[in-house]
Design goal:
The complex is a heterodimer of chains A (about 300) and B (about 450). Chain A is about 70% helix and about 5% strand. Chain A is an all-alpha fold. With about 450 residues, chain B is of the alpha/beta class. Helices cover about 45% and strands about 15% of the residues of chain B. The chains are: A mainly alpha (about 300), B alpha/beta (about 450).
Chain lengths: ~300, ~450
């Protein structure tokens, strides 16, 4: 029982981390109708910026204070992500207003390659460290109930809390602010939104900036956990089943989807893996997503797709 | 008109004269090596230092005057550690500059794909410390050269080491060993040997695959926490290694009980884990980090001091840099050996290179001469033994650097040889290969 609980908790916490990346997809899709394939590349780019600036800044300023270095690196990285967002709008999206969804998807695929390449050219392709003081050692809980207790990974726990906070803030932003409502209007119909005076270019810059900050938070958490290196860009692939499951337009869907995928893949690996040779957690998530695509293509919380024929 | 003709004639004469002056009477011979590397993608942090060491040794050879005057030339192709791209690179480069002398794929997957192409193209495939373990048998695998180490040998040494720690092979009975491996041909390679050893000594072997690239291992390490193995053998590559160490730390598994293969025991695997990796052990494929060696000093002096080095100066002498350098040295020495038979100062062909690789004899004196004293042990190959040396030792990460923590071990031929013979015979039967006899080898 203790082992089952450990696996379940581990899955839930991994799920929250997937949700964090899935949020980037949902945000941009919700606000602009673009399925942003570059989200993984943005996570890598943001993490590389954070890692390298936190390494360079102490040298430039002659300070050894880790907190100051991290804070300044975070601010600089936010600025960098804003510039990236502005450039994406300026150089790519501006010319694709009212284009088909597939065209926009292909454009983001191109953006992903450009960001991957430029990020590694500017910041390097080695493994870099982000040290934001996350605890690495585990804690044991319920030792009096279960023999040996239940292991909780403190780092994952804190990361899950940060992810939850970010989700709540974004939900409030989307539901309660004028900009949030404008974002949703743009997502519904570009032309209709423009006709009532919503500035499309500014809205797109805002949404890409928000996605950039989400990418930065995801990059810091994943980078602190795994080290900052190219594989960070592939974690976006782990978020794909999450958005399929949760629905592309739902922020709570990204969370629930993440939790289901996280728990599903961990339990499947531990309990089904031994019967089929192991190593199944990645394809299990995709299999689950495929099943959802067959029976509920809009996902758990997505808007129902109604097409005129 | 006359003036124009005169000007044209003068120009042509000038061009002819300058060409005659700049072209040497005898163009220097050149020996071409394709460099299949990966400097981008998930495995770049590990692939890059290997490629830098590999290329630096070719540069160093040229700086030393080439091999009897023959200069080394090379062209790099990015494989991204993907088998399809690796084969593409091989096909693109194999015929360039008069033909490839040998190829080193730095991937067991690419090696599997090239194993059937090599005999057709007559280009030796050198896989120093990786590739197919049964390709040690040169009678069947005439063109594969797993020089200095195979995965079966590495796994055998690891079992020997933990047996020694326990107080003998008999003490392994009932012990639990878990193999955490990259779910690829590379990661699966040691399984056969470990199963054989488990049968011999009665230890319990469990296998936990990790999917590419290896960044998600929580379920794997929760299983380890539940099973509480006595030892974990790590057969990872790239980010998988550091992730394993971080998950071991997060689940409280002692790093002192973890043993990596030589591809899981370099600086990129531990440096961002820092103190969390303290006590972690890995096999050293003879060499470790060798910043104090003569060859490293020579590279720094002859290349990096003149701005001609490949990659950052700080990396020179690190574990994977040394692996690349030694892999390159082995091919250069095979060229030298082949020239000894087919003509000093002459460019050699792929077939002649095979002879060189089968007659490699690097004794201590030769190694000392190359600045490799203390870095590695002598290597002697033959037509039937394409590995040439089966020595390894263990090094341990102290939080800052790798330190050797064991004596030398030699792969046990009594265990390895029958397995190699059996697997290679099976391969020969499948592919309808007639094994070479000692007489064939003399040709």
């Amino acid at each position: 029982m203790a082992f089952f609980l450990e696996t379940l908790l581990g899955g839930l916490m991994s799920g929250m981390l997937y949700s964090l990346v899935a949020l980037g997809f949902v945000l941009i899709f919700k606000a602009s109708g673009v399925f942003n394939f570059a989200q993984g590349a943005m996570v890598l780019f943001a993490a590389l910026a954070m890692a390298r600036f936190s390494e360079w800044i102490p040298g430039w300023l002659g300070t050894e204070n880790l907190f100051v270095a991290n804070l300044l690196a975070f601010i600089v990285s936010v600025v960098v992500m804003f510039v990236v967002a502005w450039l994406i709008e300026r150089l790519a999206l501006r010319y694709l207003v009212n284009q088909d969804g597939a065209t926009l998807l292909m454009a983001t695929l191109g953006i992903a390659y450009v960001l991957d390449g430029i990020g590694q050219t500017i910041f390097g392709s080695d493994i870099y460290k982000i040290d934001v003081g996350m605890p690495k050692e585990p804690v044991m809980m319920l030792e009096s109930v279960f023999e040996g207790g239940i292991l909780i990974n403190k780092e994952d726990f804190i990361a899950a809390l940060i992810a939850a906070l970010l989700v709540i803030s974004l939900s409030i932003f989307f539901q309660k602010t004028a900009t949030g409502r404008a974002l949703r209007a743009v997502a519904d119909d570009h032309q209709a939104a423009q006709s009532i005076g919503i500035p499309l270019d500014r809205i797109w810059v805002i949404v890409w900036c928000v996605a950039g900050i989400t990418a930065l938070v995801a990059g810091i958490i994943w980078g602190s956990k795994l080290g900052v290196q190219f594989s960070l860009s592939t974690i976006a692939l782990r978020a794909l089943p999450v958005v399929i499951l949760g629905g592309l337009t739902s922020v709570p869907g990204a969370i629930i989807g993440g939790l289901i995928i996280g728990v599903g893949e961990k339990l499947s690996e531990v309990y089904l893996g031994p019967f089929v040779g192991g190593g199944i957690e990645i394809w299990f998530a995709y299999m689950l997503a495929l099943v959802f695509l067959l029976f509920r293509p809009q996902g758990l919380f997505g808007e129902k797709i109604i097409d005129r024929v | 008109m006359k003036l124009r003709k005169l000007a044209v004639a003068a120009s042509l004469a000038a061009i002819g004269l300058s060409a005659a002056l700049t072209t040497p009477a005898f163009a220097a011979e050149e020996q071409f090596f394709p460099v299949l590397a990966y400097r981008t993608g998930a495995y770049a942090p590990n692939g890059t230092p290997w490629a830098n060491g590999f290329v630096d040794y070719l540069k160093l050879t040229n700086a030393r005057g080439g091999v009897n005057g023959v200069k080394m030339i090379w062209e790099e192709c990015e494989t991204g550690y993907a088998t399809d791209r690796g084969v593409e690179c091989y096909e693109r480069l194999k015929g360039k500059h008069g033909g490839a002398t040998a190829v080193q794929p730095l991937s067991t997957g690419i090696t599997f794909a090239l194993t059937e192409k090599a005999p057709v193209d007559k280009i030796p495939v050198i896989t120093a410390g990786y590739g197919r373990s049964e390709s040690q048998n040169g009678a069947v695998f005439g063109w594969n050269f797993p020089l200095v180490g195979t995965y079966w040998m590495g796994a055998d040494v690891l079992v020997q080491h933990v047996a020694k720690k326990e107080g003998g092979f008999d003490k392994l009975k009932g012990k639990k060993i878990t193999l955490v491996y990259h779910d690829s041909p590379y990661g699966k390679e040691p399984i056969a040997l470990l199963q054989e050893r488990a049968k011999m000594h009665g230890f319990d072997l469990s296998l936990l695959p990790v999917a590419h690239p290896g960044v998600e291992q929580k379920a794997t390490w929760l299983q380890i926490r539940q099973n509480k193995p006595d030892y974990v053998f790590l057969w990872g590559w790239g980010v998988m290694n550091s992730t394993s160490l971080k998950e071991a730390q997060a689940t409280g598994y002692p790093r002192e009980k973890m043993y990596g293969i030589w591809w899981a025991g370099a600086e990129p695997d531990v440096k961002d884990v820092g103190d969390g990796a303290k006590g972690y052990n890995a096999l050293a494929m003879q060499h470790g980090a060798e910043q104090g060696s003569k060859v490293v000093k020579e590279v720094l002096e002859k290349l990096h001091a003149k701005g001609q080095g490949t990659g950052p100066k700080e990396e020179v002498g690190q574990v994977l840099y040394m692996r690349g350098l030694i892999s390159s040295m082995l091919q250069v020495e095979a060229v030298r050996a082949a020239q000894g038979r087919y003509g000093k100062g002459k460019r050699i062909t792929g077939e002649q290179m095979r002879w060189g690789l089968e007659n490699l004899n690097l004794d201590q004196k030769a190694l000392d001469g190359m600045g490799l004293a203390g870095v590695m042990r002598p290597v002697q190959t033959s037509c039937l033994d394409h590995m040439g040396s089966a020595w390894a030792r263990v090094h341990t990460w102290d939080g800052k650097k790798w330190n050797f923590t064991s004596d030398w071990y030699q792969g046990d031929e009594k265990v390895l040889r029958p397995m190699v013979m059996l697997a290679s015979a099976k391969y020969a039967e499948e592919k309808k290969i007639k094994p070479r006899t000692p007489e064939d080898c003399k040709k």
